């Protein structure tokens, strides 16, 4: 016979493993899973608002009839789930669900539903419907979070993240006058969405008025697909700055002006474009620079161009690096102008905002939960602007990426699989529930 002490040790170990097994089983039994089929049906429904049967893209641009109708459809759906729903002065659709302790700050999540003209069916749509699916799942399971929850569908993301900038206090009176692709100004457009242009500049939220903000989004790039990864844990959203650049030379007859007597603005603009590529590539990092628009004047085949107007865009996670790149580009442009007999003028124009880092604590939660769910993942920057960029100025913010096929976005060919969408939504749910337990002080 075994000594009594050894027998007790064996019994205690056996009891420990039995309790551990029961704990694991109970934990698994309490796992709350989203409904992939329901998510897909919701996606198909929203897709139908603005679907272009000829191009197969979506024309649900901000403030269009499609936008107005889709927003009302989503409001009806959220009200049907027992949410308290309203439109704020910026035309944002906001739905609240009470928590066990409504004195706590809300956990907010959401995205946008407006598209670029002839855009895709995933940009913004996945994050908005994913947030709604999280609510549907919690309602279905009768699960009440400790914190209140707030779902936000932001207005006019594609033309300058208007709705989220309003909440972040980043709008100016001039922002209201900006014309959009719908033919309406921002002021006119938000009125169509149920907003109030006379009050929109006064709805900025206080700093850290939310416990956290989360946004699920398609990557809009090809990194996750190329590496075979399920999830991108976004480290930050790049700062984006635009300039209008004017090159002034001398217009002259294309037949009678010798090549060595020309002050060709277009030739200088071409060299300028090449120079930007060289400057941006000469520094380590993930910064990018783009000339996406160029127009020569007077624009006749037989006239040496005397003026060229083009755009310059720079993006990076570091504002200091953007400053450094611009300074170098401007200096080299002035030197190029002297050599070519032309002049360069730079005019900064409004863009989506400064670089914004996501909260490291939320990054850790997203990464840990993705790993627990068996989703391969990596941390990465976002090269595109998002509503989360503005929300990061008023709340601890996290962002989840899912793969985009071919890295294509803002196009009818934009695509993410329903499996990837469901993975992202499940991770959004798990992250929300984990943040509900955590203090982020």
Structural class, please? alpha+beta
Helix content: 25-40%
Proportion of beta-strand residues: 15-25%
Mean pLDDT rating: 93
Cα gyration radius (Å) = 26 Å
Kindly report how far apart the N and C termini lie: 57 Å
DSSP strand tally: 16
**Oligomer description:** single chain
Number of helical regions: 13
Q: What is the element string, with H for helices and E for strands?
A: HHHEEEHEHHHEHEEEHEEEEHEEHEHEH
Shape: elongated
Low-confidence stretches: 21-29
Description:
- This protein is of the alpha+beta class and 441 residues long.
- The chain has helices at 4-29, 36-47, 65-80, 125-140, 162-168, 173-177, 186-192, 223-227, 265-281, 319-340, 360-372, 387-391, 418-437; strands at 84-87, 93-97, 107-112, 149-154, 212-218, 231-237, 239-248, 252-253, 288-290, 294-297, 303-304, 307-316, 343-353, 356-357, 377-382, 397-402.
- The strands form three sheets. Strands 1, 2, 3, 4, 5, 6, 14, 15 and 16 form a nine-stranded mixed beta sheet that branches. Strands 7, 9, 10, 12 and 13 form a five-stranded antiparallel beta sheet that branches.
- Strand 1 (84-87) and strand 2 form a beta hairpin.
- The chain is elongated, with a radius of gyration of 26 Å.
